[in-house]
Amino acid sequence: MGKLRNLAALKDRATPPWLNFSILALLAISGWLVNAHAPTPFFGIRLLLGSTFSIFSFLLFRGKSGILVAIPSSLVTISLFGEPYTAIRFLGEITFLTYLNRGSSSDLSIRKGSLIWQVAIYSIFIGGLFLYLTERLLLGSNAQIALFLYHKNFVSSILNVVLAYAFYSALELWRNGRASPGQHQISITTLCSVGILSVVIACGWTIEISHYRTSYKDMEAILLGEKNYIASSIVHEIERYGIEAMTNQSLLTTILQERVKIKTISNAIWDEGPVPSKASPNPSELGTLVRLRFDNGQEIVSNPLFFKNFDKTMRQSNDFGNTLKGLEIFSPAGGSRVDRYLNSYWYYDHDLSDSSSLKSIELITSTHDSIQHLQSLTNQSAFSLGCVIFVGLILSQLSATLLEKEFQLLTLFRETTDECDELRASQLPYSPISELNSAIESVNINTEKLVLAKQQIEALSAVTARQMSTAAQIQQYFLSNVMPKASHFELEAFNRPAYDVGGDWYDCFTIRDRLFFVVADVCDKGVGSALFMSVFRTLIRYTTMLCYEDEAQDTPILMASIITRVNDYMALNHQDCMYFATVFFGSIELNEDNLIYVSAGHESPLLLKPDGSFEELSVGGPAIGLFYGADYLSRTAPFETGSLLVAYTDGVTDARDPNGESFGLPKLRQLVVESKNLQPRLIEKRVIDQLDQHMGDAEQFDDITLVILAKTS
């Protein structure tokens, strides 16, 4: 209990009031400075990031600290825009957040990043709608400008809250230790949300800014080409008419009417027209204004009063960014940024130092049409960026939810040994330091357990491998390594299990002058089949030996009786195990030309007669071990000199290649026919080689057994 109290005391340790006040003052000043010098990434549009500091202060101190910090950064917008509506929107946002999270229970939702969605809801349904209506109804702006401010409000609001959470997360990660989490912590899921949103905003911002700047440069290039063409046309016409163009007012008027759409001129001094002023409702009505400078010092202007005011009040402006060489923007020296935009002019100076008469041509056009184009482009960019951020909000929330589930799974295996551990475990879903620390501890503990389990498994595997190797050796001892020898017979056998041990077997033995051989297949494969294989083999071999003690026994009847006895024993005593065997049990008298056999559900062996034809060997009963009391019949087939018997299990004909195609009985029959003149050991080798070639890289999935018996002269 002492550890629990110490940890609680550590968490409740208060920060000195003077330090809190200093931090709040610093944040308030920072917000004011950032808004006062807000960047303009798009045409004439300030990106206000002062709210970042008010939200950041709310995350640090809770309560009304965010409102206090927001006041200076909000008031500075009044001097920037000449109206209080942006300030009201800023103060309304932080007040909205403060009200929703006024209780101590809100700490949980704040740590989990709820402020991001709260800001999104406010900017969509309250703040953005407020700005749209004030622009349309109170300030008289067009729908395009009002809609842009709505989109811009959403983008800047999300950007502010994401930056605030990013600063807060970085501070907590730096301030908190692994063992002593701080008073206000943030969830690992919020770190995920902030990270994903930051990437989405950065990518969307980069793409939109690049598109905007490319479009702006294209517009400038078009304007520059247009002005260059007009100036060149004027020069061409003036040089074509020579001195007459400078003295003949009618001719000069005609030239300029064709090139720049000027209506009239009076003499060398043209009529005074509208001047650039704030009172001009539409500066584009001025058209293109021209000033011609001649080598003799004479100047001819299309509007003397305009150029008098232009030279006096206009200054080269950087509000639009860098322009192309030869194309400049002039704006009023005073007034707000909006006034400068609305009363700006494109200025083009066409240098004619090589001309014989003209020195330069100055063309001046209102930027009104260009501003409308840029407003449309900016609105599209803001809308696209807003859509990207909204999609990013959804994706980040889904990703954060999935990540939180993964961390919860990690902590399920963590054991709590004392009260301090229990307190820390209760904070796991919400503290990044605790979550990461506990996750690492869990991973380390589980890794140690996995390593220990792996070592135990490897030891058991080694023991199992040794035991399986021993079992495989024992099973091979069951199989006859030395074939019985006879002057008129040759016998060869082959067995290869699919695993270390298998259920296939063969057996060859002689009793007096009679040769017995068995080819059998226990159902399934592996250890279970191998165990029952030994039982079946022993029963058949020793039952045969016991039955043949009496020389007067009839071989066909006796062989059927042997299989019947073995079947009844297995079906009666081991039926629950559900293991059975298909058996081909054959016998040949060494001095006779007959094959006596019992086929208990086994594949029919291939009996190739001397004339090259095959004789079908019929089945004499079901597989042994299935049905108690089943009847088995023995059969007799001629086995003359030159005859060849190939007995096999289904692992031969069912062997699959990598494409799943079986070796098949037809291919085996063809192979036997082609090899009939070879010795049994060569036939065996040829069949096995063809099987291996057929299987290739495919895994052997069943046991393979082969017995070949040939009668020679």
What does this structure look like?
This protein is α+β, with helices and mostly antiparallel strands. The protein has 3 domains: 12-213 and 376-406, Orthogonal Bundle (Arp2/3 complex 21 kDa subunit ARPC3), CATH 1.10.1760; 223-374, no CATH class; 479-711, Phosphatase 2c, domain 1, CATH 3.60.40. The protein is built from 21 helices and 16 strands. Strands 2-1-6-5-4-3 form a 6-stranded antiparallel beta sheet. The protein has a 5-stranded antiparallel beta sheet with strand order 7-16-15-12-13. Strands 8-9-10-11-14 form a 5-stranded antiparallel beta sheet, with helices on one face. The protein is elongated.
Tell me briefly what this model is.
With 713 residues, the chain is α+β, with helices and mostly antiparallel strands. It has helices at residues 2-11, 17-36, 51-61, 65-81, 85-100, 106-111, 114-138, 143-175, 188-241, 244-247, 249-260, 304-313, 337-342, 368-412, 419-426, 432-478, 527-547, 555-573, 650-653, 665-674, 680-695; strands at residues 288-294, 299-301, 314-316, 327-332, 345-351, 358-366, 489-496, 504-511, 514-522, 581-589, 594-600, 606-608, 614-615, 635-638, 644-648, 704-711. The protein has a six-stranded antiparallel β-sheet with strand order 2-1-6-5-4-3.
